[in-house]
Amino acid sequence: MPDLADFHQPITDLFPQPKSASDWDQYRLKKSQVEFFHENGYLADIKLLNEAQIEALMKALDEVMDPQHPLHHLFHEFHSNESGDPNKVLFHSLGHWRIADAFHDVIWNPAFRMAASQLLGDRPVRFWHDQLFCKPAHHGGNVAWHQDYSYWTRTVAMQHLTCWCGLDDATEENGCLHYVPGSHRWGLLEKPDLAGEMDGLMAMMTEEQKADFKPVAIPLKAGHAAFHHPLLVHGSFANYSDRSRKAFVLNVFADGTVSDTNEPLLSGVPIIPKGEKMEGKFFPLIFDRELKN
């Protein structure tokens, strides 16, 4: 069974690819949407998936969550419950794009790629890594308030972007995302324990930031996504509802980002020396102007 990271193009027909530059126009964000992103630090309710694509990804999710999967060793991280508390279960993994066809190909979803490039300033885009965040019904754990880039300072410059997409409907009852609009202008804060106490970040904030801390809920239908800035403060509350909340995350950066460490950037990934460009097998170029023609 192959490591799908060796394939830098779609390997199934799940996400049909545009054949010409004009074919990309249907995926282009409006100017007002891009402006909203830069003002608030996020853009929500972007449809990325149809029912067939959701079904394929759900099937793949059930397979990769099995710790006995024959390609389990390809995960960069795998936490059946990152919280460690059986009453607050948070499944979290990185690297499933290497294992499942559907999660590999969702990276080449044209709707995702076009939006990512626009929100990064119409720049070429490279894949950083993927994540799964799954909260079971009744005892699903929280994701503490945090900024993504606080975990990513091993890469510079800060020109990253996160896309969160639900496979279940995400509601306030089952633990949807919450964003703090405008917090992407606060600068870099210390990083908390991702599955720790919800409010751990508060101790690292100034009084002014605490006064401006006004989270908004981001409910999303399955197949719809939210994009956010790497410094936007966000998190999600526990799930005590009767419905699960399953989601995947795609993290990217603008082409030209470099390594800022001589340590491995991800578990199982060969070292890219400090100052050298992030590229190669694990960081494929997924969008460029040339790819649209």
TrEMBL record:
Domain of life of the organism encoding this protein: Bacteria
Cofactor(s) listed: Fe(2+)
Keyword Oxidoreductase: yes
Gene Ontology molecular function: any one: iron ion binding
Gene3D superfamilies: q2cbj1_9rhob like domain (2.60.120.620)
Keywords: Dioxygenase, Oxidoreductase
Keyword set includes Oxidoreductase: yes
One Pfam family recorded for the sequence: PhyH
Descriptive protein name: Phytanoyl-CoA dioxygenase (PhyH)
Species this chain originates from: Algoriphagus alkaliphilus
